[in-house]
Design brief:
Growth Hormone, Chain: A, mainly alpha, transmembrane helix
Length: about 475
């Protein structure tokens, strides 16, 4: 038990959630930085491809700058999943700040493309080190009534970071904006140093006194005996469970079906136009004559993303998962088809589309909004619901690696088709249309509705 001297230090009789709020707030700082990593791409690539760029790059360099982030993520994902259980969730999240700081620092002094590659690789490593333990840490730190809100706020912060990247990078030089982003990361490192470790991890390591002290701190009261008992029981139950391997993931019917569903959602995320728009929106709209500049379009899309995440948070437990996947799938597919047709008429039929320049703009808003309401937001929820406990860590790790590989492929193939081969955006968005249609139909066919159902019920439906 915690030493008596510690009793009463953080407590009120009715309890206080001050430390829970502080933990969540501190995590949102780094979630914002992760969003900045993505939001940096589009305006930075446009600036680097300008004739007066201090570091001139070509189209293939641009796609590599996007793809190398995912390479870093692939490197750090298995490492982070190992370290989470060895040194703790908090230490891994603290570690994530170091490559992020070095990455932003390299961009501030970069003089050639290879320094930029190295910087973005380190940014990707940092993203993996932070995101992989984040949901585990938040789930183990927060009270049950705050867990969903904590995750939603971090998703909002990620989208806010993308929006800030769209706004700040064009206004300042790449060096100045990167210095600002580096300072934000330093602020996270300093603040998060004072945050507590997960009580579940401490209990897993046998540090019962520290576990109780952390619970007292987080809940703001001295009597945490009931929750301490729950934590110890959960650790005991977890230690008695068999850890599933790759064979069990692929051969057990329910696990295999859940794995297929998860991977289809990941495919829809990365080949549905969402990440292409985040990375290349300004490059895409540079060729469209419009009342809006490409920078304005990017900022509007950032606002749309924030709005859609808020809406999804309110409706996901009211409407269910499958209705959202169906509606968002139809909207995303339609938006991709409209964009493809617009650029086909412009780039292949050589029609004057200046009078219809609002069409791709509106379609892009629909695409981003619907993607966020569908595969992007629901993927995390569905992933947490459909996997058996013993194989969840492995399935999540493999899903993260697969998503990173898909991200590399989508970034490289878009630039290859649109710029290197000179076909413009049409082929890519036509392929996104086909992919989303197939993924939506297959997902609806394979996935059971998980809203309001217990884990046992979901597993039974997966086995049917």
């Amino acid at each position: 038990m915690a030493v008596d001297a510690e009793k009463g230090r953080y407590m009120k009789p009715e309890g206080s959630r001050t430390w829970e709020y502080l933990v969540c707030l501190t995590c949102t700082i780094m979630s914002t930085v992760v969003g900045l990593v993505q939001g940096w791409n589009s305006p930075a690539i446009v600036a680097l491809m300008m004739p007066d760029s201090p570091i001139p790059i070509i189209a293939s360099d641009a796609s590599t700058l996007i793809a190398v982030i995912s390479v870093g993520f692939v490197i750090s994902t298995p490492l982070s999943m190992y370290l989470i259980e060895k040194i703790g969730r908090r230490k891994v999240m603290l570690m994530s700040a170091l490559p992020m700081i070095v990455g932003w620092g390299l961009i501030t002094v970069a003089t050639n493309i290879w320094i930029l590659y190295t910087a973005r690789l380190l940014n990707g490593v940092a993203v993996g080190l932070f995101l992989n333990p984040l949901s585990i840490y938040m789930g183990e730190i927060a009270s049950p009534c705050l867990r969903g809100a904590g995750l939603t706020i971090n998703i909002l912060s990620f989208n806010a970071g993308i929006l800030l990247g769209y706004v700040i990078v064009p206004l300042l030089s790449l060096s100045m904006s990167s210095a600002i982003f580096m300072s934000i990361t330093v602020a996270f490192l300093i603040m998060f140093y004072f945050m507590p470790e997960s009580p579940y991890y401490l209990a897993m390591k046998g540090n019962i006194e520290d576990t109780e002290a952390v619970l007292e701190k987080l809940r703001g009261k001295t009597d945490v005996s009931d929750e301490l008992e729950v934590v110890l029981e959960a650790i005991k139950s977890k230690s008695s469970q068999r850890t599933g391997g790759l064979t069990e993931l692929l051969t057990v019917r329910t696990n295999r079906r859940a794995f297929i569903i998860n991977n289809i959602l990941i495919c829809s995320m990365h080949f549905g136009g969402f990440f292409t728009m985040i990375a290349f929106v300004q490059l895409i709209f540079q060729s469209v004559t419009s009342v809006f500049s490409d920078r304005t379009v990017a900022i509007v899309l950032g606002v749309v993303q924030l709005t859609s995440v808020l809406i999804t948070a309110f409706v996901v437990d009211r409407l269910g998962r499958k209705p959202l996947i169906m509606v968002s799938g139809v909207m995303v597919a339609t938006a991709n088809l409209v964009i493809a047709v617009f650029f086909y008429m412009k780039d292949f039929l050589y029609m004057d589309m200046s009078s219809y320049s609002l069409v791709p703009f509106i379609a892009t808003i629909v695409l981003m909004f619907a993607n966020n309401c569908g595969a992007i937001s629901l993927h995390i929820t569905v992933q947490s619901e459909i996997f058996a406990t013993e194989i969840k860590a492995l399935a999540t790790c493999l899903g993260g690696i697969l998503g990173a590989v898909f991200h590399i492929i989508s970034a490289k193939t878009y630039i290859l088709m649109a710029v290197t081969w000179g076909y413009g955006p049409m082929p890519a968005f036509l392929s996104y249309f086909v992919t989303v249609v197939i993924c939506t139909v297959v997902t609806l066919r394979l996935m059971p509705e998980t809203k309001g159902k217990t884990f046992v019920q979901i597993q039974k439906e997966l086995d049917n």
